[in-house]
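Following up on my earlier thread - several people asked me to post the actual chain instead of describing it. Fair enough. Here it is, all 486 residues.
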Amino acid sequence: MSILPIKVLLVEDNPGDARLLREALAEMARARFDLTHVDRLGEAIRRLEEERFDIILLDLSLPDAQGLDAVVWAHGQVPHLPIVVLTGLENEELAAGALRQGAQDYLVKGQVDGNLLVRSIRYAIERKRAEEQIQESLRRLRALREIERATISTLDLRTVLDVLLQKIDVLLPYSAATVRLFNKATSLLEPIACRNVDEGDWKSEPGKSGRGLPNVVFENKAPWTVRDLQAEPRVRDLEFFRRNGLISYLGLPLVAKDENLGVLSFYTKQEHSFGDEEIEFLSTLADQAAIAIQNSQLYEEIRSSRDALERANQVKEEFLSVMSHELRTPLNAILGYTEMVKEGLQGEINPEQVRSLKKVISRTKELLTMINGILQVTSMKAPSIGAESRELNLGDFLDELRSGYEFPSDKNVGIHWDYPSDLPVIESDPEKLRHILQNLINNAIKFTDKGKVTVSARLQEGDRREATGNRENGEKSLSPHASRLC
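Reply from S.P.:
Thanks for posting it. Predicted structure:
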């Protein structure tokens, strides 16, 4: 295997010094050098635009550039090339200044032999290469950090993909990028987002459903590269790549927590060989993107489930409300007719029939209470629910509540009502208060095997003084805390 010669651009206006340097390189049989000599910095820049060089040997005393200005100008024009400075004077301060301005080494012409020159050239090239690698690593780390920061700033899938491709376009030197995601419902790898290609054209090409290059990546769950798309037999639409000027391809699987989500693809408009380090870096980026995509998909699923649950709850509550109203109408009719029969309005009945009718009335009222409870629960879940306070005669209210429990129950439990006849008027929501007390009483009866349940209400002495003071001031009612229900 032949080794290409190191291409050296010598910028030296002294023909004698140039000849000595050429001879020094020629003496080194173990190394091959291809030296090009120019005597002006301007000519050097022109040659650099036309040819590829590996290193510049730069004299600091030129007709069109003097001292460190020559280093600054050369480094500004070709920052990627290593520069070895040549000078006729041994000046440590000048040497340090040249290194600060971008030079890799500093040589005094009269002290240079073949070995020193070759060593300096090789070290300069290696140091520059190491610097470039460090800078490239830092650039990639910054790119990963920026992409991570951008993709975790939102959970909307479309926004995540747009931000991802936008950052890739700005930070990475690739001509186009696309994202295809696997649709579980259709079992197809569908085109979702792209950058620097016509979206309509891309989505209409034959490989849109994953039958082309991305499908190979998706099925193998491994990176895949194509140096020349025109020569790849698995490409479905060569004309699409010709129209967009796309030549080389890299596809990376999007995998998060062992779930194959899709494929991230990169395209270049110049023939490009993706190296191992480059593929490793882009694979890290793909893993990072896959996590953001999976989080977005999970968020969408949770949001869809939440919306479906809210709709189901709404339908359920509407159903309960409608059915409760519909059931209450016939029950009230049953209750009314039963009361009429019991009172003898439709003919005389015997005592046994009266007892039976009382049981019917009792059970009907229990059923009405249950239906009213359902209505109360559904209304309490409404977002606009509120208390409707008004004046309430507490004695009359308890008398009405008591009438619903006049009939004996199947359990051997009695109800004892204990409240005075002079209870005050209070401010409250009668319907909600009735619902609360009925629940308390019903639970007490339900969990009492035998004996009695006592329902009592009383006005404490301190509350009585407050009530008297309120009446003297012309007020009509007590505040709710002025009464005690037990």
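The domain at 386-485 is CATH 3.30.565.10 (Heat Shock Protein 90). That should answer part of your original question.
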